[in-house]
Amino acid sequence: MGTDNADSLPQGQDPAGHPGRPGLLRRLGSALLHYREASIAIAGVVLIIYFQSTAPAFLSPGNVANLAGYAATTAIIAAGQVMVLISGEVDLSVGQVYALSPFVMYYAQQAGVPIVPAIVIGLIPAAIIGLINGLISVVLEIPSFIATLGTLFIINSVNLLISGGFPVQPQAGPMVTAIFGGNALSQILWAIGVTLFFQFVLLKTRWGCHTIATGGNLIGAEEVGVKIRRIKIGNFIICSVLGGFAGILDCFRIGSIDPLAGGTEIMFMAIASAVIGGTLLTGGSGTIIGAFLGAVVLGVLKDGFTLTGWSAYTFDMILGAAILLTMLMNVRLSHLRAAGRGG
Amino acid sequence: MSEEVLRTEHLAKSFGKVTALKDASIRLAKGEVLGLLGDNGAGKSTLLKILTGFHQPTSGTIYFEGKETQLKSVSHARALGIEPVYQDLALINELNVYRNMFLQREIMYGGPLRILNDAAMREQAKEQLKQMRVNIPSVDVEISKLSGGQRQAIAVARSVYSNAKVLLLDEPLAAMGVKESGMILDVVRHLKEKGDVSVIIVAHNYAQIFDFCDRINLLQNGEITFDQRTSDTSVEELTSLVVNEYRAARAGTQR
Fold first, then answer.
1. Other Cβ atoms closer than 10 A to B61
2. What is the pTM assigned to this prediction?
3. Which residue in chain A is spatially nearest to B106 when comparing CA positions?
4. Domains observed in chain B
5. What is the spatial distance between Cα B64 and Cα B80, in angstroms, rounded to a whole number?
6. Per-residue pLDDT tens digits for B219-232
7. Which of A130, A220, B132, B167 could be stapled to A236 by a disulfide with Cβ–Cβ 3.0 to 4.6 Å?
């Protein structure tokens, strides 16, 4: 970030001595400081321009659909993960719930339940796992990193046991399939809907306010009477249910329910999206729109590398570098934000 | 003596084998400022946290406005009008000024989502801070952007704002600059003039708060050992009491 950003402030807060020079660069700098989503959005645009110029098929309908499906799943899981991260915890088991819910839905359907109620039934174990994750971390006071690491392995085994290790095909009419993720548009609409809903919850409701308070200052929030345990457990449930829902959407998109689908890969991609998007792992601060953009950027990177013929082996290298770079940038930017107001 | 707001009888609190509070009986009249003094570890914080509803006493009773009352939780105590004034450490850095001031008693539109009425909270916070002559750039800034003094002012305003009947101040002057402590004491003085709020100030530096209190209670080793109106005692008498206790304790360990 150039020094030009260092002294820019949101409008109306400019201390004396800085007459407004509303140049484009300056406004951009100001937006970067003010909206943490801005940097990831710019990165996304730059990447899309780059890949489109090197591989013209990048923005073809087929490829966009492919990319959208991938990014949408990650974004939905990331939305829940951001809520958990803001409340000061982490959920590592969500990738296994992603695989579990479609199976439960499938078996409910096999037992004669119509598809839509079967989807709801598929989400029930997800909610229960969220509740268990929450109770273990909050009531038994086992750090959520360990608690959900434990449930991660347990659910993985359950998935293999109930499926016998074999994938199955979801059974649904074309209508239900299309609505629940069968085409890329519906899946991206679900992702946008989930993102906007939870961003609203985070910024405009009591639940969101208390989630920030819980992660920002646990003791302070508890002293004032915020129900920190309920907030944390609730967010674990939200995260788990969204993980299960993403799994159900994906099974209709892919046309198969695989006991080994998702797993740690999709969980880490969701956490990476959240972090790249501007959510802090230390709690108290995060953005769901940022996580959505983070998921899009990761999708663009992955897809773009494939199209331009880069080796798939390098993807993780780029991903790792991107995480480190954005973290570095976040740290720098938050220092600038703090310095900008102090003077 | 005017009417009584808060009274405790033989409050005690143990944490496992450790007895933090042995026997605390205090009474607080309407509009009175009670100084609760004592050394570190005397049980001041424990007593205060029982009164805020944070801890439940192991034994003893609490009477609020003449009725026997169990303070089930911090929210419950606050709903009754017993309002703790926390250090600025209890503020949430990531939330703005008015969201902090209204934390856990937000104004909401209702409905299942409990949507916050930011406009109403913003207006009321502005009004309240103006009344208290607290000067901050805007109620929309995050707490982390404010100076130490401003943060403390918000912490006090948050409590005073709630139309509390009893304010509990825990070491309000600890780790604070002259300007900040002056501001806190101004607020206490202001409340005292209005006369409808009772205040308990917990401190170990009694010289600083002596002049503001109507009455002083001394807490030593978990027991209230001294209860006098400030007009009937002096800083010197308190000092000698504390020093004697210290000597006695030392003699005890040397034996």
1. 14
2. 0.80
3. A206
4. 1-81+165-255 (3.40.50.300), 92-163 (no CATH)
5. 9
6. 888 888 888 888 88
7. A130
